[in-house]
Structures are given as C-alpha cells and as structure tokens.
C-alpha cells in the first residue's frame, strides 16, 4: 500500500504519493483549499486516497526552529485528526522544518522560473516530507 505526504499550507496543500514499495515519493498535485473549512480539501483527497490505495498519510509538522509548536503546526495537528476521522487512515506528523526552503533551493538549482516555482513549490515540499519519512523508515 502507498503512503501519501501532505504539505499543509494556509491556501494550498501539496500532495505526494509513494511507490508501492515505499522507496520514492512523487509529487502529484497541489490542492487549493480554505484552511478555515477542512472539508474544502476532502473531495480531492478522497480521490487520491482511492486511486492510489493510500494506507498511511504523512503530514508535515512545521515546528519552529527551536522545536516548539506554533500556530501552523497546531493546524497541521488538527488536520491530521480530520484525515483520521474522514478517511479512517493512520496519520504520521513528520517534522518538516526547512522542507519548503529545501524545495526552493532544488527548484532554483534546476533553473525553474519564478512563475513555475510558485506552481510546484508545495508539491515539491510534500515530496521532501514524504521522502524524509520513507528514508527514515526503510526496513
């Protein structure tokens, strides 16, 4: 079964999915949503969960650099509860400090234009979150 990685932002959710073996993460979509209503992302997520036969959801936990939990991390924790309740799937909160910065660096080094970077940055951050989890949990 595949795993899904999510980079939960205030306006978008970057989505990545693992291969069946759980070795690599691929970015598949950026979902536009309203963080004040978690249900605005439900239909798009349900489609991905079903199509990819998702067994676990890895959600980025944006801790502060000193390791404390701020407002964004609290929203990610609430979203994890929502995913568990709506899809009956286990969730893992994964420390995502610097994942967006790393994604930006990769895209800059690949010489991706600013306009294109803006379109794929959340998806790339989701890939980095999920790949970090996969790498740490290789059997």
From TrEMBL:
Protein's UniProt keywords contain Hydrolase: yes
The protein's enzyme class: hydrolase
Intracellular or extracellular location(s): Cytoplasm
Record bears the keyword Nuclease: yes
CDD domains on file: YqgF
Enzyme Commission number: 3.1.-.-
GO BP field: rRNA 5'-end processing
UniProt-listed Gene3D superfamilies: YqgF/RNase H-like domain
Keywords: Cytoplasm, Hydrolase, Nuclease, Ribosome biogenesis
A GO molecular-function annotation: hydrolase activity, acting on ester bonds
Residue ranges annotated for the YqgF/RNase H-like domain, each copy included: 1-103
Function: Could be a nuclease involved in processing of the 5'-end of pre-16S rRNA.
NCBIfam families named among the record's database cross-references: RNAse_H_YqgF
UniProt name for this protein: Putative pre-16S rRNA nuclease
Lineage of producing organism: Bacteria, Bacillati, Bacillota, Bacilli, Bacillales
